[in-house]
Protein: Translation initiation factor eIF2B subunit delta
Organism: Tetraparma gracilis
Amino acid sequence: MSQLNSLFSYLSKCRAHSMSMGSAMASVKSAVQSLDPSLPTAECRSFVLDAIDRFAEKMEFSASAIAKLCLTKINSDDTVLTYGSSELLLKVFREAKDKGRTFRVVVLDSDVSPTGLRMATALADHNIPVTYSLYDGLSHLLPTCSKVLLSCDGITSNGSVAAAAGTSGIAMAATRANMPVLVCCETFKFSRKVIRDSLSANERGDPSLVAAVSGISHPLLSVVNLLHDATRSEYISAVVTESGIVPPSSVAVVLRELDQ
């Protein structure tokens, strides 16, 4: 375990620790701790590798199951608002298109980290009508949409959603407009931790990107680029997981079921 901990520590230095990383590390640790010390090294190695493969298979299954569940929420003639880029949501939209749904997607993007352009291009390549805009187009485009579909980096036990910076603003605006806000999240991204604000657990990006967008430069000015924010549970209508569609308040219940 001491060797594993040193390896996990190295990975955390390469990339800031995320909720899904924590789940993957916990899965490997659990497999190692369940080993019989009397087993030959080759058998132990094979057992741990099988556990890693099962976790990877769970990731693939989760994405496919979520895409199928979202078919019950994406109807023909819908206009779905999303934010940034997400492989999971791209799979969801492709699945809906392949099943014959006729819908449009509005992709909002960040000024600082414009990953949504990649998402919009991929949707257009799949013959899905798409509108692309930066974040400041939210107030203009939101009234043209029928629902909001978002991805996230993780959800804590109190139902707070950790996602790309800007997500909370979209969720709050949609809720105040009486528009459903759905978050797609695999259960391995559920965390037993509790976050109540965007500062308790976050990741810093390149501050020069913020300075370049704002045009501000001063030797006494410190620029911070926070990559994530926290969206409170009251701004989320439902969470779409491979286990079903649940309210954010049920995240703690799902975690208890996973433990069993």
Summary: The first helix runs from residue 2 to 14.
